[in-house]
Amino acid sequence: MGINCSFIKAKYESGMRIESQKNSIFKVIGASSLGTLIEWYDFYIFGSLATIIGAQLFPADAGASALINTLAIFAAGFIVRPFGALVFGRLGDLIGRKYTFLLTLVLMGGSTFLIGLIPSYSSIGYAAPILVLILRLIQGLALGGEYGGAATYVAEHAPANRRGFFTSWIQTTATGGLFLSLGIIVLTKNLIGAEDFAAWGWRIPFLLSILLVGVSIYIRMKMHESPMFTKLKSEGKVSKNPLKESFSNKTNFKMVLLALFGATMGQGVIWYTGQFYAQSFLENTCKVDFNDSRYILLWGIAFATPFFVIFGAWSDKVGRKWIMLTGMLLGIVFYRPIYQVFLDDTDVSRVSQQDIKESTVPVVTRTAVPKSLDSLITRTSAVTLLNGASYTRVETYTRFAEREKTDQRHPDTFKDKKLSAPVFWKFVGLIFFQILLVTMVYGPIAAFLVELFPTKIRYTSMSLPYHVGNGVFGGLVPFIATLIASFSGATPLSGLWYPIGIAALSLVIGTIYLSNKKPDHGESDH
Amino acid sequence: MMNALKKAMGLFWIVLGPACILFLFMQAFEKVGLAEAGVAKTNTALQWGIILFIFIPIAAGLVIFGYYAFKGEYDKLPED
User: Fold this and answer.
1) For chain A, N or C: smaller number of CB within 10 Å?
2) Where does the Major facilitator superfamily (MFS) profile domain start and stop, copy by copy (chain A) (predicted)?
3) Taking the mean position of all CA atoms in its chain, how far away is CA A305?
4) In this predicted model, what pLDDT tens digit does every residue of A344-389 receive, in sequence order?
5) Which residues, 6 or more positions from A130, have their beta carbon under 8 angstroms from its beta carbon?
6) Which residue stretches of A222-320 are H helix?
7) Helix, strand, coil percentages, rounded to 5, for chain A
């Protein structure tokens, strides 16, 4: 009887301990993920508002160059991410994970809030874009330090056999941050109206960040240091120079290169093609309406996000390698057919008269052609189709000063395309599929990177390949793909060769050189 | 067999790194030249300068990766 009682008591205590460990890891995940999600939100609102910010930061007559310059400022944030990874990664391996990513959170939140307060070009001239560029660089550096810290922190709290599952929650934050930024922008714009939003309302999403960051700092202050780092510190084994150990030690440096070329490079282009280039392509190439293109992405993200956790957990059972590489392979095979569907289904140039439900009376405008006596006539009309789709049709003619010459008609252009319900949901499905590929490559990668490096140089070593792969290869997808599509003889799909080529290279390297087994740095159980 | 493939592909990565940079330089000269001639105004020296500045160190990394692969450094990984 006595033996039975002590057995039951021991069983009960062990059950309670497991339950308490579970609660503790979910607290760690919640606190880490919230901060990381806010950092991604801060990072992405700038890109989502590029057109409006461009008009505020540059002279009114700057035209398209204002947008290009604003996108360059946006891209600067991506390019400095690897440097942030080095600076804050080193700090994280020296003083600990907790205080380092607390610092990155403060820097990110502060700079985002200040962007919301920057006066426009009309008030302070070129100081406006210069100040925003500086703040954007701080954002990039902070993000470079944040992600590696959060992933390492969660992984070092998680049991070794479930790292994929637990770190996959951190992986949802990048997509979650994008979702939050798109949602808040659309909500604010709908609440205050398009005109006020363009004038001053665009500042609201930036200013709102300080509240979110405040909450996150409060939660993170209560967190404890990672158990592995604490153990290392108590044993006096903390790295004295993590940068030197990571990159001058051949054993570590070769793994940094393998992680970059065999995994993060391909993962980065799949991420940014599915979630950034897709929206840019719908809006700028297919000319889908502003709200429609964002709603399509919002739905796609909402449906696909749970798969980060599903693939993360699955990778604990079958290994990380083949899930990530399958995601890359599917991207290589299906990107061109998917984007061809986007083009075909939004092509209204061949709409016949029988399909048109109504067309408004054209609004005619006449503008002078610069340095000439000729003028440009535009006839703009709104067309609604029987299937519920609608668009704006713009006919353009050049009227010559010489009366004997007849008007020269230019190709019609179509914009603000609102999709019919079946096409809208078909596009949601295609975006969902692309984000599903993102979840395959991105869900397991935090666990994969964490496991590749030993604790004492982990923050530094994993951050660099992650941010070169995502910030440089991935972040430049919209810029390079758009550039390729502008070459003479290029088609609208030509830009896809960049992500397809990079993903193919990564797939080959990953297939040949990566192992599907988990490395053991002597910390498999803690 | 797999190790022989890893080593052989190492040579390919060593060649691929400089080949990519050469290709990028050729593209940059061609496209920037076209932009100056007013044919394709979207390709500026600044844009191509950024691309070269970013990808030259990465291509150097690919060469080092190829060298390590050729020397058999990836024949046995820590997890094997």
Assistant:
1) N
2) 28-518
3) 13
4) 999 998 888 889 999 999 999 998 887 788 888 999 999 999 999 9
5) none
6) 227-234, 242-247, 250-259, 265-272, 278-280, 290-304, 306-318
7) 75, 10, 20
Q: Residue A351, class by beta-carbon neighbours within 10 Å (0-12 exposed, 13-18 middle, 19+ buried)?
A: middle
Whether the CB-CB separation of A84 and A140 falls below 8 Å is answered with: yes
Domain boundaries, chain A: 2-346+421-513, 353-418
Say if the Cβ atoms of B54 and A79 lie within 8 Å: yes
Q: By the CB < 8 Å criterion, does A255 face chain B?
A: yes
Label each residue of A99-135 as H, E or C: HHHHHHHHHHHHHHHHHCCCCCHHHHCCHHHHHHHHH
Specify which residues A378 forms β-bridges with.
Answer: A365, A396
Q: What single string gives the DSSP state of each residue in A214-247?
A: HHHHHHHHTPPPPHHHHHHHHTT---S-HHHHHH
Cβ atoms of A373 and A401 within 8 Å: the answer is yes
Residues of B with CB under 8 A from a CB of A: 2, 5-6, 9, 13, 31, 34, 39-40, 42-43, 47, 50-51, 54, 58, 61-62, 64-65, 68-69, 73-74, 77-80
Instruction: Please indicate whether, in this complex, the C-beta atoms of A257 and B77 are within 8 angstroms of each other.
Output: no
Measured between CB atoms, does A261 come within 8 Å of chain B? yes
- A2-58 tens-digit pLDDT: 556 565 655 555 555 555 555 677 877 887 788 778 878 877 888 778 778 878 887
Amino acid symbol at A308 = F
Mean pLDDT of A443-468: 85
pLDDT-derived band at B41 (thresholds 50, 70, 90) equals: low
Predicted pLDDT of residue A522: 53
Distances (CA, A) of A375 to A39, A144, A365, A371, A393: 49, 51, 10, 10, 20
Check if A270 contacts B (Cβ < 8 Å). no
Q: Fill in the amino acid letter for A493.
A: L
Cα distances from B48 to residues A215, A486, B55, in angstroms, run: 42, 13, 10
| Banded pLDDT at A524 (limits 50, 70, 90) | very low
Instruction: Identify residue A367 by its one-letter amino acid code.
Output: T
> Mean of the pLDDT values across residues A165-176?
88
Neighbours of A422 (CB within 10 A): 12
CA dihedral angle for residue A82, residue A88, residue A90, residue A94, rounded to 10 degrees: -170
pLDDT of residue B11: 95
CA A211 – CA A34 distance, rounded (Å): 13
Q: What percent of chain A has pLDDT over 70?
A: 91
Q: How far is A77 from chain B (nearest CA, A)?
A: 14
Tell me if chain B has a CB within 8 Å of the CB of A490. no
